[in-house]
Each structure stands twice: as C-alpha cells, then as structure tokens.
TrEMBL record:
Top-level lineage group: Bacteria
A Pfam cross-reference name: Aldedh
Similarity comment: Belongs to the aldehyde dehydrogenase family.
Family annotation (InterPro entries): Ald_DH/histidinol_DH, Ald_DH_C, Ald_DH_CS_GLU, Ald_DH_N, Aldehyde_DH_dom
Keyword list, A-Z: Oxidoreductase
Organism: Rubellimicrobium roseum
SUPFAM superfamilies found in the cross-reference section: ALDH-like (SSF53720)
PANTHER family linked to this entry: ALDEHYDE DEHYDROGENASE-RELATED (PTHR11699)
Gene Ontology molecular function terms on file: oxidoreductase activity, acting on the aldehyde or oxo group of donors, NAD or NADP as acceptor
Catalytic residues of the enzyme: 262
Official protein name in the record: Aldehyde dehydrogenase family protein
C-alpha cells in the first residue's frame, strides 16, 4: 500500500481551546503553544489559566456539590449520564485519538485503543454508580441497629500527567462521578486538549453544570495552588514521585485533604529458564517499548535466569530492533515520539550514563532522525549491576536494564531492590514459582506470563513510594467516598440518669 495513504495529516492551523468552568467555555487571555513532538509543528493553543480562574472553578464545583444537583441523583440517573458519555466518546473516538496523538506523540492506532479503553471505563463507572453501597450491622443486639453509609467526599482536584492524558483521566473521572463527587481537573500543560474535549462530551451527555470543570496551566502555578487549596476535599494526583511528595506537604499545611497518589515505578520483569522464551521476549519488548517506555508501569528492569541470559538477551534484542518506530500519524507505527524535549534529553543522558557506568548496549542507544520531532531507538542494556543509575532511577523512556539471577530468592530480592512498587511481571510455566514471586514481590499490579493486560474492573495503584490508594473498579469508586457510621436505637433507651 502507498505509504502516504496510511498517514493522517497535520492540522492546517493550530486549534485554539478555551477552558471550562460551571458549564461554560471561557476564553484564555494568555496561551501555551503546543508543538507536536512527532513533527515539531504547533498543533494546539491552550489557555494559561490564572489563580482567579482556579478559584472560579473550585467555587463552581463546591456549589454543584453542596446543592446536591449531582450527588442527590440516584445511582441509576448518574449511570445514565455516564452511559451517554460513553456513547459520545464512541462517536468522537477518532477525533479524540487524533488530538491525543498530536500533543503526546503516541501512535494513532494506540491512541484509538486508549479511547476504546476509556469508553469501557465510563461503562464500568455507570455500573459502579448503581452498585455503590454501604453496609449494615444487624448484630448489635435487639436495641441497636448499625448502618455504614458511603457518602461522596466532595470536591475532587484531579492533576494528570502527559504520558496517557486521556486514559489516565478516564481511569478516574467516571469513578469519581459515580461516587457523586464534583471535579476540578488540571491536565499537564503539554497535553490538555483531550481533557477539554471531555468537557464537551460530558455536557452533551447531560452532566449538570459545575460538576466537571477544567483549568489549564502549569504545575508550578495552578497545580501547586490546587494542592494547597482549602476547599478541595480530595486530590487525585498522577505524576512524578517528587511532585507527589510536595502534594503530601501541601495537604499537611492546608486542610489535610485526602490524597490519591499514583507515582513513579522501576518495574521488574522476571524471566525464568522454563518460560516460553519467545513469548517472554515479545512481552518484555512490549513492556519497555509500549508508549516509548513512558508508562508508570513500563517494565524497565529485566531479571533473567543466568543459564539462559545471553540467549534471551539476543532474542529480545532482535525483537526490539524490529519494533516499528516512526511518525505517530502513520497507521503502521508501533512506537512514536518522545513527548517532551526535556524528557528526550533525560533519556539520552541516562543512556550515556549507563555506558559510562560500564553497562553494555545490546541494541538501540541512539536518537532516530525522521526529519522532525524527537525519537529514540528502543534500547537494551546488559551487564547492569544494582548500583548503577539505570538500575535504580525511573528513566521514563525506552531503556531496559537487564540483570541475571541464579535463584528465585535472588530474583525476588533484586525485584524488591527499589523504592518503588508499582507493577511487576513474571514469566514461567511453573505455577509454584509464579505464585511465590507474585506473593513476595511488592507491587500493586502484577502480570503472570503477560504484560499490561487488564480492564477497568481491576484496581490500579502502587506499594512503597509508588503511591497511595487505588483508582478504577469498585475500589476506585470507594476511594472517593467517606464512611459514616450510623447507630439507630430501637425501642426504649436505657436512661443514664436514674
Ligand atoms: P509531573 O509530576 O511533572 O507532572 C504531573 C502533573 O503534575 C502535571 O499536570 C503537572 O503540571 C503537575 N505538576 C507539576 N508540578 C506540580 C506541583 N508542584 N504541584 C502540583 N502539580 C504539579 O510528571 P510528568 O512529568 O507529567 O509525568 C511523568 C511522571 O508521572 C513519571 O514519574 C511517571 O511515573 C508518573 N506517572 C505515574 C502514573 C501512575 O499511574 N502511577 C501514571 C502516569 C505517570
């Protein structure tokens, strides 16, 4: 097929967005210009909101929460809105995927898959809205009945990163809405378009004004102000561990807002000699290559049993070299551009550091030139030791560090040798080993003989410095609720004063 027919074109001029408060679009006074990381051309103009804009958004969300226009509806009515939103997303799938690809640099086919997953999140959220319930205690004696109510926590601030701008948003928004809360969202300043488009979809689906508000701007200004805001009851933050730490400080210094934190990872993939080595090599290549390794759950450390290490690394290198890296707007591309110039520099610096510290590049290790934008070849380092920066730091790029192990005990020790605990995967045909590793490696998401599988039913979140709380599924909805214990006296109360 002619190559040009496989490729979407860039927009003829940048698309200018407003921001969304209290059910209305507002025009920006100043803007960020966002260039497509795959091409270098400016594709969107995003408002640089002010603190006053944030105040308006929080006030709108507060009013919408307090007057119960959303939380006062039945779960069934909330489900109706979420299902209509799912339909709206289905209609606009290709458009949303296009803007996601333009701002983020991910391949268009992958972006479409992420919109499909987002639709499933809204459908799951609709079910959850109906299913959310409390508990009762019929065991307190004939004179007392106990109820446990789940109530929405209130106004939720939502701060999201640039690696999965829409997917991460949709792994939270429907679940927050299912609980009855209202939202002020702030996307990353480099990938705001699709968070704004969601406002349109939700409004068309019948979400009342003030329930979903979006302010756009930098993390240092708007993001920081959200973490300190006394009228935000809970903050769901997804991003780096460093900023997660500042969220904890800001919460302590303001109103003790509840925090949901999804932070970094340095995730192990453990391959035993008895695994299906071809499947394992494919899964490991996917684990580090998918989204150019810019996933919180990317498998970025490979632990491979020493008896097969060299053979497996060669097989893996062969697969990694065959990953189709290139123009994100090309249908055939599997790995696109690095999302920001700063991230591109960080990744290349780590590659240089790995070489300087004595690790060996088996494949990749260089930038790729496609005549515009920024790209890096999927890179495999062998001979990595635990003290090296590439063994410890989250690189957030397509760079995999391989370390051999001799025993299962050593594999588990190496896997846990990190401050993070977000995800892990194990490859073996031996059930005893698979389960022992799954039980003892400290990570919030685990894959056995697969990578990145899952759906909106399953909760997401990390152990250790990878974060607090869980998103998605029923666990995710419950995070956005408060628990109230209610005690009901039945019959005549025994008096205190005779
Ligand atoms: P980042 O922490 O720099 O930014 C994330 C968001 O926080 C952005 O919206 C940004 O504007 C905002 N922000 C920046 N400084 C802030 C501040 N002082 N106060 C409040 N908000 C602030 O992260 P990033 O570079 O956008 O994303 C990459 C990081 O995110 C990686 O470390 C990655 O592991 C992590 N991440 C984690 C998950 C997860 O689910 N655990 C998912 C995606 C990304």
């Amino acid at each position: 097929m002619d190559q040009s027919s496989n490729r979407l074109s860039l927009p003829s001029s940048p698309r200018e967005f407003g921001f969304f408060v209290d059910g209305e679009w507002r025009g920006g006074r100043e803007f960020f210009d966002r260039a497509s990381p795959g091409h270098g051309a400016v594709v969107t103009r995003i408002p640089r909101c002010t603190n006053k804009d944030l105040e308006d958004a929080v006030a709108a969300a507060r009013t919408a929460f307090e007057d119960r226009r959303w939380s006062g509806l039945s779960g069934g009515e909330r489900a109706g809105v979420l299902l209509r939103a799912a339909e709206g997303l289905r209609r606009r799938r290709d458009e949303i995927a296009y803007w996601e690809t333009l701002e983020n640099g991910k391949p268009i086919s992958q972006a479409r898959g992420e919109i499909d997953h987002s639709i499933a999140c809204f459908e799951m959220g609709a079910g959850a809205a109906r299913l959310l319930h409390g508990d009762s205690f019929n065991s307190l004696g004939d004179n007392l009945f106990g109820m446990v109510l789940r109530e929405p926590i209130g106004v939720v601030g939502l701060i999201t990163p640039w690696n999965f701008p829409f997917l991460i948003l949709c792994e939270r928004v429907p679940f927050i809405l299912a609980s009855g809360c209202t939202i002020v969202a702030k996307p990353s300043e480099v990938t705001s378009a699709t968070t704004l488009i969601l406002a349109e979809v939700l409004a068309e689906a019948g979400l009342p004004a003030g329930v979903y508000n979006v302010v756009t701007g930098s993390g240092r200004t708007i993001g920081q102000a959200m973490t300190e805001h006394p009228d935000i009851d809970m903050l769901s933050f997804t991003g780096s561990t460093a900023v997660g730490r500042s969220c904890v400080r800001a919460s302590a210094d303001s109103n003790f807002k509840k925090l949901g934190l999804e932070l970094g990872g340095k995730n192990p993939m453990i391959v035993f000699a008895d695994a299906d080595l071809d499947e394992a090599a494919d899964g490991v290549a996917f684990g580090i290559g998918f989204n150019t390794g810019q996933c919180c759950v990317s498998g970025s450390r490979l632990m491979v049993e020493r008896s097969i290490a060299e053979e497996f690394e060669a097989r893996l290198a062969d697969k990694m070299a065959r990953i189709r890296v290139g123009d994100p707007l090309d249908e055939r591309t599997q790995v696109g551009a690095i999302t920001t110039e700063a991230q591109n520099t960080t990744i290349l610096d780590y590659i240089a550091r790995g070489q300087a510290e004595g690790a060996r590049v088996v494949t990749g290790g260089t930038p790729l030139d496609f005549g515009g934008g920024q790209y890096i070849a999927p890179t495999l380092f062998a001979g990595v030791t635990r003290g090296m920066a590439i063994a410890q730091d989250e690189i957030f790029g397509p760079v995999l560090s391989s370390m051999p192990f001799d025993t299962m005990e050593e594999a588990i020790r190496l896997a846990n040798d990190t401050v993070y605990g977000l995800s892990a995967s194990v490859w073996t045909k031996n059930l005893d080993k698979a389960l022992a590793v799954t039980r003892r490696v400290r990570a919030g998401r685990f894959w056995v003989n697969t990578m990145m599988a899952g759906g909106p039913e399953m909760p997401l979140g990390g152990f250790k410095q990878s974060g607090w709380g869980r998103e998605a599924g029923m666990y995710g909805v419950e995070e956005y609720t408060q628990i109230k214990s209610v005690h009901i006296e039945l019959g005549k109360r025994t008096p205190w004063i005779e």
